[in-house]
Protein backbone atom coordinates (compact mmCIF):
# COMPACT_ATOMS: atom_id res chain seq x y z
CA UNK A 1 0.00 0.00 0.00
CA UNK A 2 1.31 3.44 -0.89
CA UNK A 3 0.38 7.03 -0.06
CA UNK A 4 -1.92 8.38 2.60
CA UNK A 5 -3.88 6.23 5.08
CA UNK A 6 -7.37 5.20 4.09
CA UNK A 7 -10.13 7.55 5.06
CA UNK A 8 -13.77 6.63 5.29
CA UNK A 9 -15.45 9.91 6.16
CA UNK A 10 -16.75 12.50 3.74
CA UNK A 11 -14.32 15.42 3.97
CA UNK A 12 -16.70 18.31 3.59
CA UNK A 13 -19.47 18.95 6.06
CA UNK A 14 -22.81 19.32 4.30
CA UNK A 15 -21.53 18.10 0.91
CA UNK A 16 -23.61 15.55 -0.97
CA UNK A 17 -22.61 12.02 -0.08
CA UNK A 18 -21.17 10.38 -3.18
CA UNK A 19 -22.49 7.07 -4.41
CA UNK A 20 -20.02 5.23 -6.60
CA UNK A 21 -21.92 3.27 -9.23
CA UNK A 22 -19.27 2.66 -11.82
CA UNK A 23 -15.47 2.53 -11.86
CA UNK A 24 -14.07 2.96 -15.37
CA UNK A 25 -10.52 1.65 -15.44
CA UNK A 26 -7.93 2.02 -18.15
CA UNK A 27 -5.66 -1.01 -17.77
CA UNK A 28 -3.63 0.38 -20.67
CA UNK A 29 -4.07 3.35 -22.96
CA UNK A 30 -2.82 1.22 -25.84
CA UNK A 31 -5.14 0.07 -28.60
CA UNK A 32 -4.13 -2.49 -31.21
CA UNK A 33 -6.24 -0.83 -33.90
CA UNK A 34 -6.73 2.76 -35.03
CA UNK A 35 -10.36 3.76 -35.67
CA UNK A 36 -10.73 7.01 -37.56
CA UNK A 37 -13.18 8.49 -35.04
CA UNK A 38 -11.28 7.46 -31.89
CA UNK A 39 -11.00 10.27 -29.34
CA UNK A 40 -8.34 8.59 -27.17
CA UNK A 41 -5.22 10.74 -27.41
CA UNK A 42 -2.69 8.27 -25.98
CA UNK A 43 -3.55 5.04 -27.79
CA UNK A 44 0.05 4.17 -28.76
CA UNK A 45 1.25 4.12 -25.15
CA UNK A 46 1.77 0.55 -23.94
CA UNK A 47 2.04 1.29 -20.23
CA UNK A 48 -0.03 -1.16 -18.13
CA UNK A 49 -1.60 -0.24 -14.78
CA UNK A 50 0.43 -1.53 -11.81
CA UNK A 51 -1.27 -4.11 -9.58
CA UNK A 52 -0.42 -1.85 -6.62
CA UNK A 53 -2.66 0.81 -8.22
CA UNK A 54 -5.55 -1.66 -8.42
CA UNK A 55 -5.01 -2.58 -4.76
CA UNK A 56 -4.78 0.99 -3.62
CA UNK A 57 -7.82 2.09 -5.62
CA UNK A 58 -10.16 -0.63 -4.41
CA UNK A 59 -8.93 -0.41 -0.84
CA UNK A 60 -10.00 3.24 -0.95
CA UNK A 61 -13.24 2.62 -2.84
CA UNK A 62 -14.45 -0.15 -0.51
CA UNK A 63 -13.29 1.58 2.68
CA UNK A 64 -15.08 4.80 1.71
CA UNK A 65 -18.56 3.45 2.42
CA UNK A 66 -19.64 5.29 -0.75
CA UNK A 67 -20.29 2.28 -3.00
CA UNK A 68 -23.72 1.56 -4.35
CA UNK A 69 -24.78 -1.96 -3.42
CA UNK A 70 -23.83 -3.03 -6.93
CA UNK A 71 -20.91 -1.48 -8.85
CA UNK A 72 -19.73 -1.97 -12.39
CA UNK A 73 -16.00 -2.13 -13.01
CA UNK A 74 -15.64 -1.28 -16.69
CA UNK A 75 -12.23 -2.05 -18.22
CA UNK A 76 -11.92 0.31 -21.14
CA UNK A 77 -10.22 3.35 -22.75
CA UNK A 78 -7.56 1.67 -24.80
CA UNK A 79 -8.20 -1.94 -25.82
CA UNK A 80 -8.58 -3.88 -22.54
CA UNK A 81 -7.39 -7.12 -24.14
CA UNK A 82 -4.07 -5.46 -24.99
CA UNK A 83 -3.21 -6.14 -21.32
CA UNK A 84 -2.48 -9.83 -20.58
CA UNK A 85 -4.97 -12.29 -19.11
CA UNK A 86 -2.66 -12.67 -16.11
CA UNK A 87 -3.17 -8.96 -15.34
CA UNK A 88 -6.91 -9.52 -14.96
CA UNK A 89 -6.62 -12.74 -12.98
CA UNK A 90 -4.54 -10.90 -10.39
CA UNK A 91 -6.66 -7.74 -10.46
CA UNK A 92 -9.98 -9.63 -10.16
CA UNK A 93 -8.59 -11.66 -7.23
CA UNK A 94 -7.47 -8.48 -5.47
CA UNK A 95 -10.85 -6.80 -5.92
CA UNK A 96 -12.65 -9.91 -4.70
CA UNK A 97 -10.39 -10.14 -1.64
CA UNK A 98 -11.04 -6.49 -0.74
CA UNK A 99 -14.76 -6.46 -1.56
CA UNK A 100 -17.12 -6.10 1.42
CA UNK A 101 -19.99 -8.58 1.44
CA UNK A 102 -22.49 -5.71 1.16
CA UNK A 103 -21.21 -4.72 -2.28
CA UNK A 104 -21.43 -6.80 -5.44
CA UNK A 105 -19.05 -6.20 -8.33
CA UNK A 106 -19.70 -6.87 -11.99
CA UNK A 107 -16.70 -6.70 -14.32
CA UNK A 108 -17.30 -5.53 -17.85
CA UNK A 109 -15.13 -5.12 -20.97
CA UNK A 110 -15.76 -2.86 -23.93
CA UNK A 111 -13.59 -4.33 -26.68
CA UNK A 112 -12.98 -4.18 -30.41
CA UNK A 113 -13.17 -7.99 -30.30
CA UNK A 114 -10.13 -8.61 -32.47
CA UNK A 115 -8.08 -10.33 -29.77
CA UNK A 116 -10.73 -12.70 -28.39
CA UNK A 117 -9.67 -16.34 -28.19
CA UNK A 118 -10.57 -19.41 -26.13
CA UNK A 119 -8.30 -18.37 -23.24
CA UNK A 120 -10.04 -15.01 -22.94
CA UNK A 121 -13.43 -16.72 -23.10
CA UNK A 122 -12.40 -18.94 -20.19
CA UNK A 123 -11.60 -15.85 -18.11
CA UNK A 124 -14.91 -14.22 -19.07
CA UNK A 125 -16.87 -17.28 -18.05
CA UNK A 126 -14.98 -17.90 -14.82
CA UNK A 127 -15.41 -14.29 -13.69
CA UNK A 128 -18.82 -13.65 -15.27
CA UNK A 129 -17.48 -10.67 -17.23
CA UNK A 130 -19.98 -8.65 -19.24
CA UNK A 131 -18.75 -8.10 -22.79
CA UNK A 132 -19.52 -5.34 -25.26
CA UNK A 133 -18.08 -5.74 -28.75
CA UNK A 134 -17.72 -2.69 -30.98
CA UNK A 135 -18.83 -3.53 -34.50
CA UNK A 136 -20.44 -0.97 -36.78
CA UNK A 137 -22.49 -3.29 -38.99
CA UNK A 138 -21.75 -5.12 -42.23
CA UNK A 139 -18.19 -5.19 -43.59
CA UNK A 140 -18.49 -2.20 -45.94
CA UNK A 141 -19.75 0.01 -43.12
CA UNK A 142 -17.51 -1.34 -40.36
CA UNK A 143 -14.28 -1.22 -42.37
CA UNK A 144 -14.78 2.39 -43.39
CA UNK A 145 -13.70 3.59 -39.94
CA UNK A 146 -12.49 0.63 -37.88
CA UNK A 147 -9.05 0.01 -39.29
CA UNK A 148 -5.76 -1.54 -38.27
CA UNK A 149 -2.73 0.64 -37.78
CA UNK A 150 -1.71 -0.16 -41.36
CA UNK A 151 -5.11 0.99 -42.63
CA UNK A 152 -6.80 -2.37 -43.31
CA UNK A 153 -10.36 -3.12 -42.23
CA UNK A 154 -10.86 -5.06 -38.97
CA UNK A 155 -14.22 -6.63 -39.81
CA UNK A 156 -12.93 -10.19 -40.25
CA UNK A 157 -11.03 -10.15 -36.95
CA UNK A 158 -13.93 -8.65 -35.02
CA UNK A 159 -16.34 -11.17 -36.51
CA UNK A 160 -13.95 -14.00 -35.63
CA UNK A 161 -13.84 -12.68 -32.05
CA UNK A 162 -17.64 -12.59 -31.82
CA UNK A 163 -17.94 -16.12 -33.18
CA UNK A 164 -15.38 -17.30 -30.63
CA UNK A 165 -17.53 -15.75 -27.87
CA UNK A 166 -20.60 -17.49 -29.29
CA UNK A 167 -18.80 -20.84 -29.63
CA UNK A 168 -17.79 -20.62 -25.97
CA UNK A 169 -21.24 -19.55 -24.78
CA UNK A 170 -20.11 -16.10 -23.58
CA UNK A 171 -23.03 -13.65 -23.80
CA UNK A 172 -22.29 -10.20 -25.21
CA UNK A 173 -23.92 -7.12 -26.65
CA UNK A 174 -22.68 -5.08 -29.57
CA UNK A 175 -22.11 -1.36 -29.80
CA UNK A 176 -22.39 0.16 -33.26
CA UNK A 177 -21.38 3.69 -34.17
CA UNK A 178 -23.90 4.99 -36.69
CA UNK A 179 -22.65 6.95 -39.67
CA UNK A 180 -24.46 8.49 -42.64
CA UNK A 181 -24.71 5.13 -44.40
CA UNK A 182 -25.98 3.03 -41.52
CA UNK A 183 -28.49 5.71 -40.48
CA UNK A 184 -30.01 5.38 -43.93
CA UNK A 185 -30.37 1.58 -43.71
CA UNK A 186 -32.08 0.30 -40.53
CA UNK A 187 -33.28 -2.84 -42.31
CA UNK A 188 -29.78 -3.69 -43.52
CA UNK A 189 -28.37 -3.18 -40.01
CA UNK A 190 -31.06 -5.40 -38.50
CA UNK A 191 -30.46 -8.09 -41.12
CA UNK A 192 -26.77 -8.05 -40.25
CA UNK A 193 -27.40 -8.55 -36.51
CA UNK A 194 -29.94 -11.30 -37.11
CA UNK A 195 -27.59 -13.02 -39.57
CA UNK A 196 -24.84 -13.04 -36.93
CA UNK A 197 -27.15 -14.12 -34.07
CA UNK A 198 -26.64 -10.85 -32.22
CA UNK A 199 -29.58 -10.16 -29.89
CA UNK A 200 -28.48 -7.11 -27.87
CA UNK A 201 -27.64 -3.88 -29.66
CA UNK A 202 -26.50 -0.42 -28.57
CA UNK A 203 -26.07 2.55 -30.88
CA UNK A 204 -23.87 5.61 -30.73
CA UNK A 205 -24.26 8.23 -33.41
CA UNK A 206 -20.84 9.24 -34.70
CA UNK A 207 -19.91 12.46 -32.95
CA UNK A 208 -17.18 15.06 -32.69
CA UNK A 209 -14.92 14.42 -29.72
CA UNK A 210 -11.30 15.22 -28.99
CA UNK A 211 -9.60 15.95 -32.31
CA UNK A 212 -12.15 14.03 -34.41
CA UNK A 213 -14.76 16.10 -36.23
CA UNK A 214 -17.79 14.12 -37.36
CA UNK A 215 -19.47 14.99 -40.65
CA UNK A 216 -22.71 13.80 -39.16
CA UNK A 217 -22.66 16.27 -36.29
CA UNK A 218 -22.28 19.08 -38.84
CA UNK A 219 -25.81 18.21 -39.95
CA UNK A 220 -28.34 20.75 -38.64
CA UNK A 221 -29.69 19.42 -35.34
CA UNK A 222 -33.33 19.28 -36.43
CA UNK A 223 -32.40 17.28 -39.53
CA UNK A 224 -30.21 14.87 -37.58
CA UNK A 225 -33.02 14.41 -35.06
CA UNK A 226 -35.47 13.56 -37.83
CA UNK A 227 -33.06 11.12 -39.47
CA UNK A 228 -32.17 9.35 -36.23
CA UNK A 229 -35.83 9.13 -35.19
CA UNK A 230 -36.68 7.53 -38.53
CA UNK A 231 -33.82 5.05 -38.12
CA UNK A 232 -34.62 4.12 -34.54
CA UNK A 233 -38.38 3.90 -35.05
CA UNK A 234 -37.96 1.52 -37.96
CA UNK A 235 -35.18 -0.51 -36.30
CA UNK A 236 -37.02 -0.88 -32.99
CA UNK A 237 -40.32 -1.98 -34.47
CA UNK A 238 -38.71 -4.36 -36.96
CA UNK A 239 -36.45 -5.79 -34.24
CA UNK A 240 -39.46 -6.44 -32.00
CA UNK A 241 -41.33 -8.02 -34.88
CA UNK A 242 -38.37 -10.28 -35.66
CA UNK A 243 -38.20 -11.67 -32.12
CA UNK A 244 -34.46 -12.06 -32.73
CA UNK A 245 -33.02 -8.75 -31.52
CA UNK A 246 -34.53 -8.49 -28.06
CA UNK A 247 -32.64 -5.55 -26.57
CA UNK A 248 -32.20 -2.15 -28.19
CA UNK A 249 -30.45 -0.06 -25.55
CA UNK A 250 -31.78 3.32 -26.66
CA UNK A 251 -35.36 2.13 -26.14
CA UNK A 252 -35.05 -0.57 -23.51
CA UNK A 253 -33.11 1.57 -21.07
CA UNK A 254 -35.45 4.53 -21.55
CA UNK A 255 -38.62 2.53 -20.83
CA UNK A 256 -37.88 1.83 -17.13
CA UNK A 257 -36.70 5.43 -16.66
CA UNK A 258 -39.98 6.71 -18.07
CA UNK A 259 -42.34 4.25 -16.35
CA UNK A 260 -40.71 4.26 -12.92
CA UNK A 261 -42.43 4.45 -9.55
CA UNK A 262 -43.75 7.81 -8.49
CA UNK A 263 -41.14 9.87 -6.68
CA UNK A 264 -38.13 7.84 -7.82
CA UNK A 265 -35.57 10.26 -9.33
CA UNK A 266 -33.84 9.42 -12.61
CA UNK A 267 -30.20 9.23 -11.66
CA UNK A 268 -27.57 10.45 -14.08
CA UNK A 269 -24.21 9.16 -12.90
CA UNK A 270 -22.34 11.48 -15.26
CA UNK A 271 -23.59 14.48 -13.29
CA UNK A 272 -22.85 13.40 -9.70
CA UNK A 273 -19.39 13.73 -8.13
CA UNK A 274 -17.58 10.36 -8.04
CA UNK A 275 -20.68 8.43 -9.14
CA UNK A 276 -18.49 7.51 -12.09
CA UNK A 277 -14.91 7.15 -10.95
CA UNK A 278 -12.57 7.18 -13.92
CA UNK A 279 -8.97 6.06 -13.41
CA UNK A 280 -6.19 5.91 -15.99
CA UNK A 281 -3.30 3.42 -16.14
CA UNK A 282 -1.08 5.68 -14.00
CA UNK A 283 -3.69 6.19 -11.29
CA UNK A 284 -4.93 9.63 -12.37
CA UNK A 285 -8.56 10.12 -11.34
CA UNK A 286 -11.37 12.07 -12.90
CA UNK A 287 -15.13 11.84 -12.61
CA UNK A 288 -18.25 12.67 -14.59
CA UNK A 289 -17.89 11.75 -18.30
CA UNK A 290 -15.11 9.15 -18.74
CA UNK A 291 -13.97 10.80 -21.98
CA UNK A 292 -12.64 13.74 -19.94
CA UNK A 293 -9.82 11.59 -18.63
CA UNK A 294 -6.74 12.23 -20.76
CA UNK A 295 -8.09 15.42 -22.37
CA UNK A 296 -7.00 19.00 -21.84
CA UNK A 297 -8.86 22.27 -22.03
CA UNK A 298 -7.82 25.88 -21.52
CA UNK A 299 -10.42 26.48 -18.79
CA UNK A 300 -10.18 23.22 -16.87
CA UNK A 301 -6.64 22.01 -17.52
CA UNK A 302 -6.51 18.20 -17.57
CA UNK A 303 -9.83 17.56 -15.72
CA UNK A 304 -7.95 15.54 -13.09
CA UNK A 305 -9.04 15.48 -9.45
CA UNK A 306 -6.00 13.66 -8.06
CA UNK A 307 -3.99 10.48 -8.34
CA UNK A 308 -5.06 7.46 -6.36
CA UNK A 309 -1.44 6.35 -5.81
CA UNK A 310 -0.76 9.46 -3.72
CA UNK A 311 -4.18 10.85 -2.75
CA UNK A 312 -6.89 9.32 -0.63
CA UNK A 313 -10.37 9.07 -2.14
CA UNK A 314 -11.55 11.59 0.46
CA UNK A 315 -8.97 14.09 -0.82
CA UNK A 316 -10.05 13.43 -4.40
CA UNK A 317 -13.67 14.01 -3.41
CA UNK A 318 -12.76 17.25 -1.64
CA UNK A 319 -10.87 18.38 -4.75
CA UNK A 320 -13.91 17.56 -6.83
CA UNK A 321 -16.26 19.60 -4.66
CA UNK A 322 -13.94 22.61 -4.89
CA UNK A 323 -13.34 22.30 -8.63
CA UNK A 324 -14.57 24.56 -11.40
CA UNK A 325 -15.47 21.30 -13.14
CA UNK A 326 -18.12 20.40 -10.56
CA UNK A 327 -19.30 23.99 -10.21
CA UNK A 328 -19.97 24.24 -13.94
CA UNK A 329 -21.40 20.75 -14.40
CA UNK A 330 -23.81 21.42 -11.56
CA UNK A 331 -24.78 24.76 -13.16
CA UNK A 332 -25.47 22.88 -16.41
CA UNK A 333 -27.60 20.30 -14.62
CA UNK A 334 -29.62 23.03 -12.92
CA UNK A 335 -30.06 24.83 -16.23
CA UNK A 336 -31.42 21.59 -17.71
CA UNK A 337 -33.73 21.14 -14.73
CA UNK A 338 -35.16 24.61 -15.24
CA UNK A 339 -35.48 24.51 -19.01
CA UNK A 340 -35.94 21.02 -20.38
CA UNK A 341 -39.11 18.96 -20.44
CA UNK A 342 -36.99 15.80 -20.76
CA UNK A 343 -35.06 16.43 -17.54
CA UNK A 344 -37.05 13.93 -15.48
CA UNK A 345 -35.88 11.18 -17.86
CA UNK A 346 -32.39 12.46 -18.64
CA UNK A 347 -31.16 14.00 -15.39
CA UNK A 348 -28.88 16.54 -17.06
CA UNK A 349 -27.16 14.84 -19.98
CA UNK A 350 -23.53 14.22 -20.77
CA UNK A 351 -21.12 16.91 -19.56
CA UNK A 352 -18.46 16.04 -22.13
CA UNK A 353 -20.91 16.59 -24.98
CA UNK A 354 -22.02 19.90 -23.53
CA UNK A 355 -18.39 20.99 -23.50
CA UNK A 356 -17.57 19.76 -27.01
CA UNK A 357 -20.75 20.89 -28.66
CA UNK A 358 -21.58 24.08 -26.76
CA UNK A 359 -18.11 25.06 -25.52
CA UNK A 360 -19.28 24.98 -21.90
CA UNK A 361 -20.56 22.62 -19.22
CA UNK A 362 -23.12 25.17 -18.13
CA UNK A 363 -25.45 24.95 -21.12
CA UNK A 364 -28.29 22.61 -21.92
CA UNK A 365 -29.30 21.01 -25.22
CA UNK A 366 -26.79 19.18 -27.39
CA UNK A 367 -27.15 17.05 -30.49
CA UNK A 368 -26.09 14.14 -28.30
CA UNK A 369 -28.93 14.57 -25.80
CA UNK A 370 -31.35 15.23 -28.63
CA UNK A 371 -30.52 11.81 -30.07
CA UNK A 372 -30.01 9.78 -26.91
CA UNK A 373 -32.71 11.26 -24.67
CA UNK A 374 -35.30 13.18 -26.63
CA UNK A 375 -35.70 10.87 -29.63
CA UNK A 376 -36.15 7.62 -27.63
CA UNK A 377 -38.54 9.35 -25.23
CA UNK A 378 -40.59 10.71 -28.13
CA UNK A 379 -40.71 7.30 -29.84
CA UNK A 380 -41.86 5.51 -26.71
CA UNK A 381 -44.55 8.11 -26.08
CA UNK A 382 -45.56 7.93 -29.73
CA UNK A 383 -46.00 4.17 -29.46
CA UNK A 384 -47.81 4.53 -26.16
CA UNK A 385 -50.19 7.12 -27.57
CA UNK A 386 -50.86 5.15 -30.74
CA UNK A 387 -51.88 2.04 -28.90
CA UNK A 388 -53.27 3.96 -25.97
CA UNK A 389 -53.00 2.81 -22.44
CA UNK A 390 -54.53 -0.58 -23.14
CA UNK A 391 -51.33 -1.56 -24.86
CA UNK A 392 -49.32 -1.38 -21.68
CA UNK A 393 -52.14 -2.64 -19.49
CA UNK A 394 -52.81 -5.65 -21.65
CA UNK A 395 -49.41 -6.56 -22.96
CA UNK A 396 -46.50 -4.99 -21.09
CA UNK A 397 -44.08 -7.26 -22.92
CA UNK A 398 -44.74 -5.31 -26.09
CA UNK A 399 -42.87 -2.33 -24.76
CA UNK A 400 -40.87 -3.65 -21.82
CA UNK A 401 -38.06 -6.02 -22.81
CA UNK A 402 -38.77 -9.69 -22.13
CA UNK A 403 -36.00 -9.79 -19.57
CA UNK A 404 -35.21 -6.36 -18.20
CA UNK A 405 -31.51 -6.00 -17.40
CA UNK A 406 -30.47 -5.77 -13.77
CA UNK A 407 -29.09 -2.44 -12.62
CA UNK A 408 -25.59 -3.77 -13.15
CA UNK A 409 -26.31 -5.07 -16.62
CA UNK A 410 -28.03 -1.86 -17.60
CA UNK A 411 -25.08 0.19 -16.39
CA UNK A 412 -22.66 -2.06 -18.24
CA UNK A 413 -24.64 -1.53 -21.40
CA UNK A 414 -24.85 2.19 -20.97
CA UNK A 415 -21.40 3.74 -21.56
CA UNK A 416 -21.32 5.23 -25.01
CA UNK A 417 -17.78 4.56 -25.98
CA UNK A 418 -16.29 3.61 -29.35
S1 LIG B 1 -32.24 16.18 -22.75
FE1 LIG B 1 -30.54 17.65 -23.03
S2 LIG B 1 -31.35 19.63 -22.40
FE2 LIG B 1 -32.74 18.02 -21.61
S3 LIG B 1 -32.07 17.55 -19.51
FE3 LIG B 1 -31.00 16.18 -20.90
S4 LIG B 1 -29.04 17.21 -21.41
FE4 LIG B 1 -30.43 18.74 -20.56
UniProtKB/TrEMBL annotation:
CDD domains: Radical_SAM (cd01335). Its cofactor is [4Fe-4S] cluster. GO terms for molecular function: iron-sulfur cluster binding; metal ion binding; oxidoreductase activity. Signal peptide: none annotated. Residues 15-244 form the Radical SAM core domain. Keywords: Iron, Iron-sulfur, Metal-binding, S-adenosyl-L-methionine. SUPFAM superfamilies: Radical SAM enzymes. Pfam families: Radical_SAM. Gene3D superfamilies: Aldolase class I. This is Radical SAM protein. The lineage of its organism: Bacteria, Pseudomonadati, Pseudomonadota, Alphaproteobacteria, Hyphomicrobiales.
